[in-house]
Write a structure and sequence with these properties.
The chain is 6% helix and 58% strand. It has 280 residues and is mostly beta strands. The strands form 4 sheets. An 8-stranded antiparallel beta barrel has the order 9-10-11-15-16-18-19-20. A 5-stranded mixed beta sheet has the order 1-8-2-5-4, with no helix packed on it. The longest helix is centred in the first third of the chain and has 13 residues. It starts with a helix and ends with a strand. The N terminus is likely disordered.
């Protein structure tokens, strides 16, 4: 457990956040004390005074506007000054980076009145690139601990490594019946095992907040028995070395994530995987 918590702390310090953004309307309000529409009047095609919509957004020159707009849009730092005909009901805001947003005013625009429309860039839940950082643990005949990291939008990728932090040196082999070189061996009852697995594969956002993962890699699980002479023998019936395959799912709750899956070595040794971590 201490090793698991240590890995959690290290991984949380190393994690970074990647994200996509989209436009969002923060507020729309009437500015009765703003006299700009009177002091710098502009007439529409019917010779009627216009209303003004002041659009507040960083990097305002990166945006274009569509609607009942009269004349050129005036750009200031963090703001666009837009003259519109009285009675206008909406405006469309466009950006090469963030797409298009149509906003319906909460009231019809009145002539010689100034309005302020405030926009903000927010993280898009449906178009966000998320980073997964998750300590994991296996449940099987040999427990192991490790970490899973990944990046996913709709599709993504992950990498995972697990180890039980034990080494095992053997000087011979035996089977489940205790036979070694055709002879019956006697054992003390002591056993040790070591487990290592390194895998990677695909992450897929199935339907928010559920994700699926599937992958493969290499690993081993080695079991040793101690004989009556104090010599460790590898139990070849319960030791496996080769291809690792795994499949699982992840459930995200805001920035926290829980995973569950199954993993196999050579499709002979199976274990369950559990994880709790962060998904930004």
């Amino acid at each position: 457990m201490k090793k698991y918590l240590f890995l959690t702390g290290i991984l949380f310090l190393l994690c970074t956040k990647l994200h996509a953004q989209e436009l969002n309307i923060v507020s729309f309000q009437r500015l009765d004390r703003d006299l700009l529409a009177r002091t710098q009047e502009r007439l529409d095609l019917n010779e009627e005074p216009c209303a003004i919509v002041r659009v507040s957004i960083p990097d305002s020159k990166d945006y274009t506007f569509e609607g009942n707009i009269i004349g050129e849009v005036g750009y200031r730092p963090g703001e666009a000054i837009i003259y519109m005909t009285s009675g206008s009901r909406n405006i469309t805001i466009k950006s090469d980076r963030f797409g298009s947003l149509k906003y319906d005013f909460s009231e019809r625009l009145e002539k010689q009145v100034v309005y302020k429309l405030t926009l903000k860039l927010i993280q898009s839940e449906s178009n966000k690139t998320r980073t997964l950082v998750m300590p994991v643990a296996s449940i099987g005949s040999t427990s192991s601990y490790g970490a899973m990291i990944g990046v996913v939008k709709k599709w993504g990728a992950y990498a995972k490594a697990k180890y039980n932090f034990k080494s095992l040196t053997t000087e011979g082999e035996c089977d489940d019946l205790g036979m070694t070189n055709g002879n019956q061996a006697w054992f003390t009852g002591n056993s040790e095992s070591t487990r290592l697995a390194v895998t990677g594969g695909l992450l897929y956002r199935a339907a928010l907040p559920f994700y699926l993962y599937a992958g493969g890699g290499f690993g081993y699980k080695k079991l040793g028995w101690e004989n009556s002479d104090g010599i460790w023998l590898e139990n070849i019936d319960q030791s496996f070395n080769g291809f690792e395959a795994e499949l699982g799912c992840i459930f995200r709750m805001k920035n926290f994530a829980i995973s569950a899956g199954v993993q196999s070595n050579s499709f002979k040794y199976y274990e369950a995987n559990l994880g709790i971590g962060l998904m930004f």
